[in-house]
Input
Amino acid sequence: MEQSSTVPNGSARESHFAALLSAGEKIEPRDWMPVAYRRTMIRQIAQHAHSEVIGQQPEGNWITRAPSLARKAILVAKVQDEAGHGLYLYSACETLGISRDELNELLHQGRQKYSSIFNYPTLSWADVGAIGWLVDGAAITNQVTLTRTSYGPYARAMVRICKEESFHQRQGFEIMTTLAQGSEAQRAMAQDALDRWWWPSLAMLGPPDEQSTHTDQSLQWGIKLETNDEIRQRFVDQTVPQAHFLGLHVPDEALAWNEGRGHWDFGDIDWDAFWEVVRGNGPCNHERLAHKVQAWQDGAWVREAGLAYAAKQAHGAPRNSA
Amino acid sequence: MQHETASPATPAVGANPLWEVFVRAKRGLNHVHAGSVHAPDAATALRHARDVYTRRAEGVSIWLVASTAIVASDPDAQGDWFEDDKPYRHPTFYTVSDEVGHL
Output
């Protein structure tokens, strides 16, 4: 375990930190914490926040083309939630001593990542359903365990996010249900969306345990409470019966119920494809980041005007005597 | 309440200041810390706080405090600065005969 040697009573503080963790207590912002714990937390919360923000793009793509006014209103609310989730998480991340501007900068420079899943395109309306059902479904499976993570502000943000995500998953499943029970063309749309989103949704839960570089330390610090493979298995177990309910085919010929394990067995994930997307070579990596940077630059005058107005108010605006 | 401001590190030049947001869920309840927002001034911060923390009617009132205005106790002073819990401050410390009934 890493610690700062400049901290007085370093070993006492470190044992206090370890005692809090083993007692199941939360770590709070002004507590002493190992440098590596702080760094890991910043990396994880920032990546999560960036994912929420970038995640607005694939769905936002369909707001103007939603098939009804009700669907449009719901999709706007959902995309607005994603922005809100990003803000809860940035707020939590900033308690660790990094500024919002730094976080934006790190994302824009590609030095911090967001979830690989948002680098896939949304080609049809069914993709909006598939994202809610599968992508948000996979995310919730992970996030529910994170409500018990050891860093207090992150855990509290996750509680709030999980409540709101469950609307997202249900609205996605409802879109899929409507399509699956619709015309032949609608069924085909739903199947096509499942075919394209299934594997990326499994991969987004992170590399297999034997390849995951952060897992051991993160488990020890209570940052993670379950491994990627455990969470992935639970997601598959929950989702396969839902696909069957929809009458859709899960695109995995190895998928089979294992009576002995009490779980669904599933096929090998193409990790080379996953890492290609993580490395920046997915279908939409460039577009997503370029759009984010453009939006940030386009909004510069608004931020400047806000600050100028606040400064003017603070110093007493000159009265117009005319 | 332990506040959750960003570290006392000075914000970047031109950065929007940070405001802590407290939300009253309904009448009869106290305001509870919900998170923080960045905004150049209080009126803008209030609108941001409404949009970010009360999208589902979670609040009937919002308090904002500039993060720099919060005074907090020393997190390292837990044991010695806060008084130990004395058992005789609690009703369960005292035994009362059953004959007395509810007391």
About this structure: The longest strand of chain B covers residues 31-38. The interface with chain A takes residues 2, 4-7, 9, 11-12, 14-16, 18, 35-41, 44, 51-52, 55-56, 72, 75-76 of chain B (CB under 8 Å). Confidence is low (pLDDT under 50) at residues 1-13 of chain B. The CA atoms of residues 96 and 102 of chain B lie 9 Å apart.
